[in-house]
Structures are given as structure tokens and as C-alpha cells.
Design brief:
436 residues; alpha+beta; Jelly Rolls; 4-stranded antiparallel β-sheet; 34% helix; cNMP-bd_dom; RmlC-like_jellyroll; Cyclic nucleotide binding domain containing 1
Length: 436
Amino acid sequence: MPMSPLPAAIFSHMTTIGNVPPPPLRNIPDLKKSKHINYGQLNALCHIRGQHSRSISNILSAHNTFMKQYPKIFLHQKTRLPKLFKQEEKRELNEGKEESQHQQPDDSHDIAVHVHKAHDGHTLYRPKRSTEDFEEFLAILKKLPIHRTPYEHKTVWKFLKTLPDLTSQLNDEHLKTLSKTVFSETWLKGSTVVANDGFYVILKGLARSQTKVYYNLMEGSDSQVSFIPQSSSSFILGEKFKKSTLAEMYLPSYDSMLSKWSTFGTLEIIPETESETQAFSVVTENDCEILKIPAKGYAKIKEEKTKLENMQKLKLIRMCPYYEEWPTLSIFELTALLKWKKFPPGHVIVESGNIISFVGYINSGCCNIYRSIIGFVKLQSNKVKKARKLVYMGKLKEKESFGEISILLQVPFTCTIITEKEVEMAIIEDKDLFVL
């Protein structure tokens, strides 16, 4: 009986496969051992007794042993510290260079040095600036301020920040503004430099002072004595100090010499009547380059600063709820009396039962309002006693004011006000408000 084509094909294929020899045997590749595994400890861990026990105590004991031994199967590489190289020779060379760079003249017999140190002055010998930078600085000062680039203005500002007589009394913003008005003047030998109209810094040459006293840079000094010897041969005294009996103790001699980086003059505009009788002058011993900061430039800075502060105070008062409908002229009268003051967090501004001493306008931060009440406190012995507690009532936020009613009507505060975080506010003291 003939076979169908499909079974005949399957049979022929099976016969062909049966005649094919099996593939040759191959070895299983070796597994690479990890460098981070301790296989001895791993083998011991796998053969801990009690792992397959039916007793619970044996299983717990085997588990605890397993957990203690498990960390030991990992190998930890030992950290090696870097080797220390001998640098004694290099250090000796560096020390020699530093000593040569910082060698300073012998000042053991110079009384000006000891007076300077006694008044907590800066060091007389500042690090040497590179000659190239200094020459660039001189070249910039020869230009008119309007012709200088932003980079040149910044260079002048950097040099001004190295003068202690300026940095001790003016902040960086004022110095930055002044740096755009300063210029350099060349004075020939024997010239008399009258310093009634500005503040001067000697850049090159020597000069001898002819006057005893120089004005303070800034007016409004509260101290009776404002003696500020900030740099070599530089003396700046307050107006009140000039008339005191202590003046002769601190005044420089007539023949005191002013050298490089010495300062003289004033930043306050002196009336013509006083400038004729009080001439602040020096005589140049040789050709000098002198930097001048005009007093009018500083006066302009103060005027702009006053305008900005007054506008800020006016805006602050105007935004407080009780002053929204006040006339602008009336608010201007208050701005003249305002003073800025900061309070730290947790500061008690006024306690309940007291009359506050100022009116406050909060510019930043906030204050918490508490009411003092008497309550009952239960003790451990089941007894009850009276105790005073502060209960939170509300919050004073930015652009809010307080204290007007307490001062004007002389009524004690019914609440306690405590700052929650640092608070900056403008205040008007009660004595100023009564005068108004």
C-alpha cells in the first residue's frame, strides 16, 4: 500500500537525524572568584548547624549566628594614606622670600608708630602694590571722570577702599559714588595746597603740614573726642575737640611730614567766612601728585541719600492703615522725626500696663501681640493655684503702626508686644512727637 507524501517526508527526516552523530562534549567554563568575597567564611556560613531543624530554639540560634557571621564574608580593602614628601628645602626658600618681602623699616624709635598702635590704628606699612597697577591708577586719575570707562571707575574704587581714613567713615556705596568724582592734581615743589574744599591723598612726593587741625570727614559725631589717626602722618580731629583742652596733647607738630598715602583736608563744605580764618594747607617739599575728592561731590551724595531715605519713610507711613488719607505735607513733618531701628527676635517692645516711649512703623518683620491673663494651674497634689499667662491675640505685620494712642493720651498698653523675628522699623520718640 503506498504511503502519503507527508508521513514519508517525516520518516525520511527522522532517518537523517538518527544518522547524525551527537555534538562533542565541552567543559563548563570556570567561574571567576570575586575579589571582595571571603569564600572560606561563605562556606562556613552555608554549613551552620540548625538551619533545617524543626526546633524553634535551634532555628533562632542558627539565625543569630548567621547574622553575626554574615558581614565577615566581605573583604574590605585597607585604606592607604599618601606618602609624605620632604619639603624642608622648599619651605626654607619660601620663608626666605616672605621675610625679604615683608621687611619693614625699623620703627622702634618712631613715636608716631606707638601712638598709632595705642589708638587701634591700622598698620602703617601696607603691602606694596605692583608698580604697573599704580601707574595705571595714576593714568586713570589724569582723565576727566566723564571720559573714564566702567573698568577704570572700578579700578579707582578699589584703590579708595584701601585707604583706612575713608573706609573707617564711609561705606562701600559712598566710596563707589565718590570714585566717579575724584581726580589727580600735579603740584610743583614749594606750592601751597589749601585743603578747604576737599579731601586729599598724596600719591607721589612729600609735603609738610602748616596747620594743626583737620576737620572730621563726616559731621554729626556724638563723641567729644573724635581723634582718628588712620594712616601714616594723617590726623583728623572733630570740631568739638579742636576747642577742648586736650587738643594740644594730640595735635601734630607744625613740621610733621606727609608722605605717600597720607591724607589731609575735609569732606564737609566750609562756609567762606570760616575758610578765610581756618585754612587747612600743606607745602610740597618736591613735585607731588595728589588725589582730590571734592567736598561738593560728597555733599551731593549726602543730599541724594537724604532724599532717598525721606521717600522711603514717606512711602512707609503712607502704606500704614491710619495714614492713608493724611495730607502729604503732614507726613513730611513726621519723616523729619523718624529714626531707623532694628530689634532682635524675641525682644519685648512694650509690656502690658506700661506707656510706650515711641511710635513704631514696621518696615520688615512682624511682632506678636499677647494679652496677660490670670488663670488656674492644677498641681500634682490636686491643688490649684493662680498663675499669670500670655495668651496670643494677633500679629503686627509689615506696613502697620502702633503706639500713637498710648503716647498722645498717655494710656498704658493693654497688651504685650514681642518681636517674632528680626524687625526693622522707623520710630518717632515721644519727646519729638510732643514738640511736633
